[in-house]
Write a structure and sequence with these properties.
With 170 residues, this protein is of the alpha+beta class. Helix content is 44%, strand content 14%. It has a two-stranded antiparallel sheet with strand order 1-2. The protein has a two-stranded antiparallel sheet with strand order 3-4. It is flat and about 60 Å long.
Length: 170
């Protein structure tokens, strides 16, 4: 895992083939291109408690907060089944409903970030249905599918050359 890039097999294989101080050729990543520089190599070792304690503590706090959010959103989903609206439940939770732009199966949802499980769950539901709660980032999300757009072969045919040109430019 590389900060800012995430888990990318091509990045990992490139880095592990490099020597200290070496610069890579451009490597394609989901958000564009990256040039990698191997600053240092640390030999394998078992980390001491002092090295891992802050990270373990933060992870435990995050897990507990996420579980509390999941539990509260499970209750909220039951309230939705009893006739409350998503807006009413959001007000009770001290938040507001956020609407995202269109998204696909790749997992990036505006306002939520990279959340493949949420995208997959949303794409599997019919319009009008509520999904979740699902863990997302450091919290949880409850969502409602407003509309779904399927693949339109005619629209794609009309944009095919433009899409091809954009991919070639990238």
């Amino acid at each position: 895992w590389v900060p800012g890039i995430g888990r990318q097999p091509e990045v990992a294989s490139t880095v592990f083939a490099m020597k200290k101080g070496e610069v890579s050729k451009p490597v394609q990543i989901p958000r564009g291109w990256a040039i990698l520089f191997l600053k240092d190599i640390y030999p394998p070792h078992t980390q001491t408690l002092a090295e891992v304690e802050p990270r373990v503590r933060q992870e435990l706090v995050t897990q507990k907060l996420q579980q509390a959010a999941l539990d509260r959103l499970t209750q909220a989903k039951q309230e939705l089944a009893q006739g409350k609206t998503l807006d009413q439940v959001a007000i009770e939770l001290g938040t507001q409903v956020q609407t995202s732009d269109e998204f696909g199966a790749q997992g990036f949802i505006q306002g939520l970030g990279f959340a493949p499980p949420v995208a997959k769950a949303a794409l599997a539901l019919p319009p009008g249905q509520v999904g979740g709660p699902l863990a997302s980032g450091q919290g949880a999300v409850l969502f409602q599918v407003v509309e779904k757009k399927g693949f339109d072969p005619q629209q794609f045919a009309g944009q095919r050359d433009q899409i091809r040109q954009q991919i070639e430019n990238d």
